[in-house]
Amino acid sequence: RNKFLSKVLNKGDVFVFPVGLIHFQFNPNPHKPAVAIAALSSQNPGAITIANAVFGSDPQISDDVLAKAFQVEKNTIDWLQAQFWENNHN
């Protein structure tokens, strides 16, 4: 539950996201554009609490990645991560 999986992909690599897992892509090199092709196994993805999955993942998603994705300071990300854990906000 709320697992964080990370993989660096190279040209031609494939990554399959487990069913029900929140996912995102991050290109660490802004000078080398990346292309992703996605396919879904269902048009009905169900419901997932995004805040718990993103800020309460195990292990945590990098502060740098989250700060950039949400365009906020790292201390804001630290505060948000402190609000979410297994026994809180279920």
Protein described:
The structure is a single chain. The chain has 90 residues and is mainly alpha-helical. It has a domain at 50-82. Helices cover 27% and strands 0% of the residues. The chain contains three helices and no strands. Helix 2 (63-70) packs across helix 3. The mean pLDDT is 79.
Order of SSEs: HHH
Shape: globular
Instruction: Please provide the count of β strands.
Output: 0
Largest sheet: none
Strand content: under 5%
Low-confidence stretches: none
GO molecular function: manganese ion binding
Subcellular location: Secreted, Extracellular space, Apoplast
Family: Belongs to the germin family.
Protein name: Germin-like protein
SSE blueprint and pairings:
Elements: H1 50-55, H2 63-70, H3 74-83
Give a quick rundown of the structure:
Its main location: secreted. By secondary structure, this protein is mostly helical.
From the structure above, extract its key features.
RmlC-like_jellyroll, 0% strand, Cupin_1, Germin-like protein, manganese ion binding
